[in-house]
Amino acid sequence: MRHKVLSTTGSTRGTAYTMSNKILTHEDRTHVVWLDQIHKTYVRTHNNKTGRWSAPVFVGNGDDNHAGAALAIDSGGYLHLIFGPHHNPIQYSVSAKPNSMARWISQPSLGGVNATYPSMVCDRDDTLHVCYRGAFGRERPWGLMYQRKPRNGEWTEPVKLVDPEGPQAYTQFENALYLAPNGTLFLAYHIVRAMEADHSQVRGMGFGVMRSKDGGRSWMPCTGEDALTLPTTPASPCVIEFNEQINVRMGNIVCSSDGTIFFTLNRREDKVHKVFLYRWWNKQWEVIPLLPEAQKLFGDCMISDCCSLSISDDGVLYATTTVCREGGGWADPTNEIVLFTSRNLGETLSAYKISPDDPNTSSWLPSLERATGHNKVGIPCLIYTYGEKGEGCSPDIDTEIRFVSLKPIARREEKTTREAIGRAESLIGLSFTDEQRKEIQRGVETGQVLYRRLRDVDAGNSVEPPLISYRGCPYPPAGSGSPSN
Fold it and tell me: Which CATH class is domain 3-405?
């Protein structure tokens, strides 16, 4: 698998912050944004017809290595980029031409004086939606804030969606926005905050999901239709779990075309850190462990960070994260990148090694291309940081920013399924066209999910079977009643 080095002067968190989309494909071009040394936002474009990369384009300076960018596109093909803050306003730029990163036009900033970690999507009306950690003025603790910008309009005033409560000390949120195919706006987040008894001790104490069906004007939990009272708190019904004794980190959220919701969660309570895939199934969250699949490839290991998640337009689920030796941790030198795929909405998983073996240098901070409203996701691409984490917010250390196409993996999986269909053709003495085989493949992959859902139905012994047998005679014509003896 080829790894394209986009930069050799990347920042120590060049591809960090899972909440923010950093890769976007539109028509014949794939656009990528990353953080260069130390806080410079750069972009490059790959022409998918010619196979050539553009030269790097500098967009703007941020505050430090926390200045990760978020990328989206509108219905006219104009690219939107927010970047730069660490307790400062969020910078906002729009491409000068559709589907081009060659030149950018700076726009009014947003987020106030205390913004950090933005995520962004663009809905069918070209309204931009942005979430970030922030506050009204310099208040503490920081909350999870939301703003939107209608097409040709101005940014709305900030709304606080989550109040972490607790001490006036450090707080941090994963705040990943996602637009479902039906236009529903989802927000997944964790609450990292200080302990009540000791403000120097910080843990990920809770996580939740909320959704909006009216463009961010009101929000509700996945468990019901009643509007949430804003700001929500750790006791609100959108919070799935909250406890000072847990230590979790949320990944981003995605939704399939049939309405199945997914997010990932990194749990750090035990010596061996793990990641779980959460799936909204039968009106409850089903939890699927990912560590066992990783251990089949890497042996004794643990998952050291949260997981980036994507779902392609044809319903294939992709998840990527970092594994390291047991006892390692965030940015451990033994970090390697693993990719999980599922062609049946999480029923079965496959795992693949992505980064080259190097026990001395960390491959970490993977980020998957995902839908942000108007872009298509055929086979998502991936970027990651290769290098040290350094110390503090502005270490003078260069890293490599690496880009990976996942097409070889997707094609290998498709080939395996096609070969299985071919063997079935030989067995039953039939021959199908390529288009028919693709249709059969989709049916096989979704059939596993449908059969699972049928098995989940508790019919009880009182329900008659759906088949009626007429022994020794043909089925009667429709409407003729029972056959005569």
Answer: mainly beta
Query: For the chain, how many helices (H) and strands (E)?
Result: 3, 31
Domain boundaries of the chain, sorted by first residue: 3-405, 413-456
401 burial class (0-12, 13-18, 19+ CB within 10 angstroms)?
A: buried
**C-alpha dist (Å) from residue 261 to 211, 287, 419, 469:** 11, 12, 31, 40
pLDDT in tens, 101-140: 999 999 999 999 999 999 999 999 999 999 999 999 989 9
Tokens linked to 129: 């939606």
156 DSSP assignment: P
| Pairing outcome for strands 70-73 and 336-342 | unpaired
Structure tokens at 64: 């430090």
Residue 100, judged by CB atoms within 10 A of its CB (0-12, 13-18, 19+), counts as middle
Least confident range from 277-281, 368-372, 436-440: namely: 436-440
Q: In whole angstroms, give the CA distance from residue 261 to residue 255.
A: 4
Q: Are 456 and 284 in contact (CB under 8 A)?
A: no
A 10 A CB-CB count for 227 gives 13
Cα 363 to Cα 335: distance, rounded to the nearest angstrom: 5
Torsion 159-252-303-25 (CA) sign: negative
